[in-house]
Design goal:
single chain; alpha/beta; 16 helices; 9 strands; binds NADPH dihydro-nicotinamide-adenine-dinucleotide phosphate
Length: 333
């Protein structure tokens, strides 16, 4: 079992006297920067002078150009989208790193796939919250934590993991717990969910919708049943409170029997083979190469795929239920 660190295992003192630079003030940037500041860290923001930069200034931060923040910081959190990190790193960060700095990522992707290569005298660490940015901030304000993964990929100072843990504590994650992990494990778990689990769930939902429409059921009632009712969310919540399998006890026995007796048939050998194929693409780097080539071409396939799903009849049913959806959404804000 992975080691889990909590607040009592961690000393924030390692951040004392060191400037923490947060590059980016978006989903994770705004949340982590404010939590770190509230935890006593000396935080500066690196961002272009635009809406995000102005938001950081309005929140009372000193905001600098990215290169200046990279130069000023001793611990630098890279909290801009993974897709833009390699270019921003080459142009604005690399030359401004000094020996003994720590470069901290919130995802394993760019280091694991060697899209970013860091000088040997700089620590490379990861603090990857398993939580959206808004909740990272809100949970912190409520005194609550959330899971995160921590790793030290390059430990030049001999203290890289201590710095990672201090950041994890500073952002409030270790009030619940930080799992010791690696860049490879984080990237693999993330990509496998994105390429196996979520696409399968999405496609099965679409199939459920299509088959019921084919069998004379009303598209809006199906969309409501499927996700607009919020039942999906309640089941996911019950997986935390009751357990992944034990939540089945909240359903009728007819439902329990249907789910437990039919589940295996829905994952035939072909699906298992596709899961292996997705894993192969992740491990070999083939997916990372395909995605880099797609980005270099201006993402034409991604645009086409978006056009296709937006034309699906389920999207139309959702549009027809716009006002219903807005009322339902209030329960989940
Ligand atoms: P965002 O999309 O919210 O990042 C927006 C920020 O990035 C803004 O400050 C924006 O500033 C800056 N930015 C965007 N493009 C550029 C560019 N080309 N050059 C310079 N700055 C740029 O990112 P996230 O917070 O979602 O993700 C940050 C990291 O956190 C990623 O590694 C991600 O994998 C990880 N992560 C994200 C989670 C999430 O909840 N979203 C959860 C866990 C980890 P500007 O206005 O100048 O464009």
């Amino acid at each position: 079992m992975a080691k889990i660190y909590t607040d009592d295992d961690i000393d924030l003192a390692i951040l004392k006297g060191r400037k923490v630079g947060v590059i980016g003030y978006g989903n994770q940037g705004h949340a982590q920067a404010q939590n770190l500041r509230d935890s006593g860290a000396d935080v500066v923001i690196g961002n272009r002078d635009d809406d995000y930069g102005q938001r950081a200034a309005a929140d009372g931060f000193e905001v600098m150009e990215i290169a200046a923040a990279a130069s000023a910081a001793d611990v630098l959190l890279v909290l801009i989208p993974d897709e833009v990190q390699p270019v921003v790193y080459e142009k604005e960060i690399k030359a401004n790193l000094k020996a003994g700095d720590a470069l901290c990522f919130a995802s394993g992707y760019n280091i694991y796939y060697k899209q970013i290569e860091v000088p040997e005298d700089v620590d490379v660490i990861m603090v990857a919250p398993r939580m959206i940015g808004e909740a990272v901030r809100n949970l912190y304000k409520q005194g609550l934590g959330y899971p995160c993964l921590v790793a030290a990929e390059q430990d030049s100072s001999g203290k890289a993991m201590d710095v990672a843990l201090a950041v994890a504590k500073g952002i409030g994650a270790t009030r619940l717990g930080a799992f010791e992990s690696s860049f490879e494990e984080e990237a693999t778990i993330d990509l496998f969910a994105e390429q196996m689990l979520w696409p399968a769930i999405t496609k099965l939902c679409m199939l459920y919708f299509e088959k019921l429409v084919d069998n004379g059921c009303d598209p809006e009632i199906i969309a409501s049943e499927l996700y607009l009712s919020g039942e999906f969310v309640e089941i996911a919540k019950a997986m935390i409170t009751e357990g992944f399998f034990e939540q089945l006890n909240l359903h009728s026995q007819t439902s329990q029997y249907g789910q437990l007796s039919r589940g295996e048939r829905m994952v035939p050998a072909e699906v298992r083979a596709q899961a292996d194929k997705a894993m192969e693409g992740i491990k070999s780097g083939a997916f990372a190469q395909e995605w880099a080539a797609e980005q270099a071409k201006g993402k034409p396939t991604l645009k086409k795929l978006w056009e296709q799903v937006r034309k699906h009849p389920m999207a139309q049913a959702e549009k027809n239920l716009e006002s219903f959806r807005k009322i339902a959404a209030k329960a989940y804000k």
